[in-house]
Amino acid sequence: MKIQSVAIVGGGTAGWLAANHLAKALFNQNITITLIESPDIPTIGVGEGTVPTIRKTLQSFGISETEFITRCDVTFKQSIKFQNWLDSHRHGRDNFYHHLFDPPSSMGDDLSSLWLQNPSDAYSQLVSSQFDVCEANLAPKLITTPEYQAVQGYAYHLNAAKFALLLAENAKQKFAVNHVKANVIDTRLHLDGSIASLVLDKCGEQEFDFYIDCSGFDSILLAKALKVPFVDKSQELFVNKAVVVQVPTDPDAIIPPYTKATAHQAGWIWDIALSNRRGVGLVYSSAHLDDEQAEQKLNRYLSGQLDQYSYRTIPMKVGYRKQFWARNCVALGLAQGFLEPIEATSIMLTDFAAGYLASRFPSDSRQCESLSERFNQTMSYAWERVVEFAKMHYCLSDRNDSDFWIDNRDPQTIPAGLSNKLALWQEYVPLSEDLFSKFEVFNVENYLYVLYGMKFLTYKKTMSESSLVLAKQHAARIRRHSEQLCQHLPAHRELLSKIHQYGLQKI
User: Fold this and answer.
1) Residue 436: pLDDT band by 50, 70, 90 thresholds?
2) CATH topology for 5-73+156-232+321-385?
3) CA distance 192 to 475
């Protein structure tokens, strides 16, 4: 049967990202796309960090970066600054490292071997100029830098609710996506088990040929209607709750150009500065910390001001669906699964999966079986790599101040794939060839920043005198480049103010 109509169930970032990806790819193919959004269910709206790939996505949708920044309270994100993830007695009470967005050693050969000669220094500062740019709270570009172009690599912090509205407007105006506000009260199936129709409270029964489940944690199509089981990952990733709050900021306050990720005894705290407020969330393991203790910790982090703001506790089901595409239904966003907010993987996986689906969307229902098999293999691989990368942040820590950190180092909780990588990297500096698939979610530079930021020590091999000289010259070039950037790049808030006033140059 030819596929002529698609229903996307659920709005928010996931639903409207999917709508833009699909509608753009299928434009002028006589396929109608309808997004059905409940008027009664608010979006989660706490994941306000992105990764650099989102720039390419937004540009492909034809969204002006200037409009995006001005309408969605956007700030630039050049890094994640991990604070206190290591033992305070060995590394100091204010130990930190940067997971930067510019690749390491961009002006020559890899400097990891040079760093290993003296690993007491900050790895990210040795290998990248972006370290100093971040620590100086500078922007990643100039007002004269065209839209989506960069001096330093960057992603964004954003207001998730406003972002969803901008995506919705773009999908409806540019790509003719239909928008229905209604609740799905029932799902009816064909005899073969595929979805036949949706029953809506305001529109009655509606039939479509293909369905996208963006209904969040509820997963009303893939999980509830099609009974696709859940793959639990809570034995590897312990964090399963978050206390979240939004804190207004002074209009003249310095805006850090990075996400702050501050570890505590049973998890960590994210702190994301937008142009007018901070999004703060304390994530924790309920097996190691109770709700009252979590609130007390967040209150201390906010200098005793938590009760001045509205806050809520969000449970997180840690894992993903065994299948992401079943029969004529694909799940995206939280309906696929959720691990935890570290490294902003939720929006990243949604964007990746929606773009992949759009590039391999079936024109006929007979294609679903072969396409779904490939899609499920790819997405399962991607989710497992995210599990490994997230777990690495915990199992590399040498903190001993609580059972949470000690339990995270238990070999039984470490995925086999990660254990194999770490065993290899104890002997050899990581290479891109160590990562086998083009569907890797994180590249070798991501691993390098986290591994050596957390003082993981690869066996130190003696460098030849000539190699040592070249490496030191390379490091000196990076230091000079850092000084130049710090002299010429504007303060983060200064650039944002200019963008609001003048806009960025169109490409």
Assistant:
1) confident
2) FAD/NAD(P)-binding domain (3.50.50)
3) 63
Report the pLDDT value the prediction gives residue 46, as an integer from 0 to 100: 59
Quote the tokens at residue 353: 């999966």
Sequence letter at residue 37: E
Per residue in 476-490, pLDDT (tens digit) is: 999 999 999 999 999
For residue 114, what is the enclosing H or E element? helix 112-117
SS3 label, residue 243: strand
- pTM for the full predicted model: 0.96
Structure tokens at 76: 């630039």
Distance of CA 146 to the CA centre of its chain: 25
pLDDT score of 205 more than 60:
yes
- The Cα 314–Cα 279 span in angstroms is 14
**For residue 405, what are its two tokens?**
């950190």
Beginning with the edge strand found earlier in the chain, give each strand of the sheet holding 267-273 in spatial order.
Answer: 96-100, 79-83, 259-264, 267-273, 277-284, 241-248, 311-315
Beta-strand ranges (E) seen in 337-432 are 337-338
- What pLDDT is recorded for position 460? 86
Bridge partners for 212 per DSSP: 8, 330
Tokens read off for 336: 């696929």
Q: Are 98 and 113 in contact (CB under 8 A)?
A: no
Six-digit token pair at 33?
Answer: 């796309």
Using one digit for the tens of pLDDT, what is the confidence trace for 358-373?
999 999 999 999 999 9
CA 36 to chain centre: 25
Rounded Cα–Cα distance for residues 246 and 312 (Å): 10
Q: How far is CA 93 from the centre of its chain?
A: 28
Structure tokens that stand for 350 in this block:
């949604």
How many other CB atoms are found less than 10 A from the CB of residue 317? 16
Phi and psi angles of residue 149, each rounded to the nearest 5 degrees, phi first: -90, 165
Tens digits of residue pLDDT in 441-455: 899 999 999 999 999
Q: Give the span between the Cα atoms of 28 and 407, in whole angstroms.
A: 54
Taking residues 392-414, what's their average pLDDT? 98
In the chain, % of residues over pLDDT 70: 98
What is d(CA 31, CA 364) in angstroms, rounded to the nearest whole number?
Answer: 12
Report CA 51 to chain centroid distance, whole Å: 6
Closest CA to 282 of 327, 314, 236, 320: 314
Instruction: For residue 4, give the amino acid letter.
Output: Q
Q: Which amino acid is at 130?
A: Q
pLDDT, tens digit, for every residue of 28-51?
899 999 999 999 876 655 558 999
pLDDT greater than 90 at residue 58: yes
Take residue 322 and report the two structure tokens written for it: 């065994």
Q: Which residues contact 233 (CB under 8 A, 6 or more apart)?
A: 318, 319, 320, 339, 387
- How far is it, in rounded angstroms, from Cα 463 to Cα 475? 15
pLDDT of residue 106: 82
